[in-house]
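Final paragraph of the annual report: two paired records, presented back to back.
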Amino acid sequence: MKKLATFLFSVFFVCSLAGLTFAEELRIDGSTTVLPIAQKAAEVFMKKNPSVKVFVSGSGSGTGIKALMDGTTNIATSSREAKDKEVATAKEKNVTLTSHKVALDGIVPVVHPSMKINDITIEQLRDIYNGRIKRWKEFGGPDRPISVVSRDTSSGTYEVWEEKILKGDKVRPDALLVASNGQAVQTVAQNKYAIGYIGIGYIEKSVKVLNVDGKTASANSVRDGFWPIARPLFMYTNGKPSGVIATFIDFMLSKEGQKIVNEVKYVSIK
């Protein structure tokens, strides 16, 4: 009986270890812009590494970086660089925010497909979003009010738009704030007189992309800096990554990982 009990304990112990190995987890949270990249990469990564379970969510760049500081995620995705304040707060928590550039993105202004406008300037975009231009007729459109769709302030996409388009101005107070690129697409697609902005990877037929200052958004124009509203996309870790975190970051930067970036309609860095 004693030998049987010892055997059963040994089997239980070995199975428990196997379960622990199988249950190795990696958590990724942050930017909704980077979300399609992270989701597809996680899917392929888990097929290559069946002993790892990857959980991916998109709560916004700022929220993802905070989650990394708090230890509730292993990798924070961000569509902007970490702010000085975030870096300082992280240090207070003994966290070192270490960036890994994994892709490039172009932010594109979008309108309803029925809108008879194809081009817009940086200045016109600024005046629409700060409230100086209120009606489409002011630059050749119909005599209807412009419904402005913007991202919420926790979004890295909003912060890049604020820097490159608003240039210090505040977004008009009646703008509709949405929490994700997907919501921006849906909102503009359902309103003939709306204008919004999204990451290049979210372009679909339900919205029309406007040229900016006569330039067209494309992988090449983003990569060579010709597109005026371009930015790098990041994955942040706490210091130099190790273990499964390092394995995932290395995969993301590999030829296969960069191929995934292109497959989900973003711009690879290589």
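The closing record of the year follows.
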Amino acid sequence: MFDTANFPNAKKIWHMGEILDWDDALVHSQSHALHYGTSVFEGIRAYSTARGPAVFRLDEHMDRFMHSAKVLKMQTPYTKTEIIDTIKLVVRENRLDSAYIRPLLFYAYGNLGLVPWASPVELFVSAWEWGAYLGKKSVNGVNVYILPWKRIHHSQIHMGAKLGGNYVQSTFCGMIAREKGFDEAVFLNLEGNVAEGPGENILIVKDGIVKTNDRTESILEGITRTTVLQIAEDLGMQTEVGPMTKEDLFDADEIMFTGTAVEVVPIIRIADGSVPGDPEKEYMVGDGLPGPVTKQLRSTYLETVNGKQPRYDGWLTYVNE
């Protein structure tokens, strides 16, 4: 039996055309992806709405999912439309009103040379209830640590694909930040500019302007990032996309994380550990409380995903319709 304490209300999982009990979804220990990280995935959320559970920006997530598979040279066993239908099925089978959804394509059992020439591509789709990624207190702001480790550079690997192996860096650097007592980490890139968090984009607010960076700064341009920028513009805010320095963080009026798992979370304190051997100096963001722009963007975002903003209804895929 697998303990589902960290996967609330996870009952069923889909694998290669079959609905299985959670405990029955097993793979062989010699599967290629288990050894080399040769997988692609998406993190997607469904939210409770007046019309039942609705998946947020499912079409965009599936476009990226299929793109990621192409980057990893995968022959996908199912079409985009078939995977969309499967995701809706899995939410229904688990009887979830809101859910975190994880489609996973991976090179399975076949061979263990670095090139998976004999390893077929298989697909899992799972769903469970998942609350605030950085904890319930994150609505009041989180504390972050700027790492000495630099983000994987966009000249080294395709940053627009969600490749499983890339997240090894996110995992151990997120652990480093937490060992030091912080809620999350922040990466700089090889140029010394701000990149992103282990699984989040970063937006700053200065003099009313909402700013973030792009893929040339070694980030995954997240779907939530794009959503929040669009909401900001629709609210009449000025937005800007370009490089951000450490000093831009330290001088910002407000800073926020965005991401499917984290949603929109204010950053209220930063510690700079980016230069090994130098003292780690701490900075308070603004007055140390969530700022008005962040709160407005977060509020509008949550109304949007819960179907309370009619202008954005096209971003929702209703599971039961």
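The chain has a mean pLDDT of 97. This concludes the annual technical report; the extension proposal builds directly on these records.
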